[in-house]
Design a protein that fits this description.
Elements (H helix, E strand, L loop, with lengths): L1 E5 L7 H14 L4 E7 L18 E5 L2 E4 L3 H12 L7 E8 L11 H11 L4 E6 L3 H4 L6 H17 L10 E6 L9 E4 L11 E6 L5 E6 L12 H6 L2 E7 L6 H11 L1
Parallel strand pairs: 1-2, 1-5, 2-4, 5-6, 6-7, 8-11
Antiparallel strand pairs: 3-4, 7-11, 9-10
Helix pairs in contact: 1-5, 2-3
């Protein structure tokens, strides 16, 4: 199996080391794992592509490249430059440091990489590690993903739903904020929404007197509706959420048509 991996935390991120282990186990001794990851952290860039300026790419080692771009850029670079059209069997993105459950999914560069792969007609899975008080005390905060990641991806490949529609399915996997031994299992879960919390800004004044704004996230452990991804994660389960890049509100089409005609 040929696997292309990327992330949004950057080429030197600890989570990418975990993903390399997962991909290497999946690929097997005769397989190939190719890494094309951002040269610098690209958290929060979603499905951004560097459409208006070029990006430099550098080979760091065998099958290992860093690109000055977003995760979606890295997937494009991997497919059309690094691999020279030799399409991978699977694209994995992550393992993100922090959850991409709930509304975080909309901002996630980790998901952006998987989304681009799906738009290119490839099987793709994004993997993220929820962090919290229990993981803070671990020597390896990625322990749940490291221990359970390969088996979870293999199960998705063997038994998951895969299609070749225009906006094909891809998957978001979030490992719970607990140690590996405390993981209770896996749940298929819809994307949730954390109510009464959101992203915002925090102003700071620089030594020169200029105002700068930091983007600030909301409370990550705010619960979502029962059975949705955040709720499942906080209850100790790995969440698996099927996704598509199609943003159409299909549930509203008929009502809107009736209202406007």
């Amino acid at each position: 199996m040929r696997i292309l991996i990327t992330n949004d935390d950057g080429i030197n991120a600890r989570g990418l080391e975990v993903l390399t282990e997962i991909a290497t186990e999946l690929a097997g001794p005769k397989g190939e794992v190719w890494t094309v990851a951002p040269a610098f952290e690209q958290s929060g860039v979603a499905h951004c592509i560097s459409y208006t300026h070029p990006m430099m790419i550098a080979k760091l080692g065998p099958r290992r490249f860093a690109a000055e771009g977003s995760p979606a850029d890295c997937v494009l670079a991997g497919l059309f430059d690094v691999l020279q059209g030799a399409r991978p069997d699977l694209v994995l993105s992550g393992v993100n440091r922090g959850n991409n459950s709930g509304e975080n999914a909309m901002y996630s560069g980790t998901l952006g990489g998987a989304m681009e792969a799906a738009l290119q007609g490839l099987p793709a899975i994004a993997l993220s590690q929820f962090m919290g008080p229990d993981t803070n005390d671990l020597d390896d905060p990625f322990e749940a993903a490291r221990v359970h990641g390969a088996a979870l991806v293999r199960k998705l490949l063997d038994k998951g739903l895969w299609d070749d529609s225009d906006y094909r399915l891809f998957y978001s996997v979030n490992f719970p904020p607990v140690g590996a031994a405390a993981v209770k299992g896996m749940r298929v879960a819809a994307q949730g929404f954390r109510r009464d919390t959101s992203f915002g800004v925090e102003p700071h004044i620089s030594p020169s007197g200029r105002k700068f704004l930091w983007i600030k996230g909301g409370a990550q452990h705010a619960p979502t509706l029962p059975g949705t991804d955040v709720a499942v994660n906080l209850n100790g389960y790995i969440s698996v959420t099927p996704m598509r890049a199609d943003l159409t509100a299909h549930d509203a089409l008929a009502a809107l048509e009736a209202a406007l005609t």
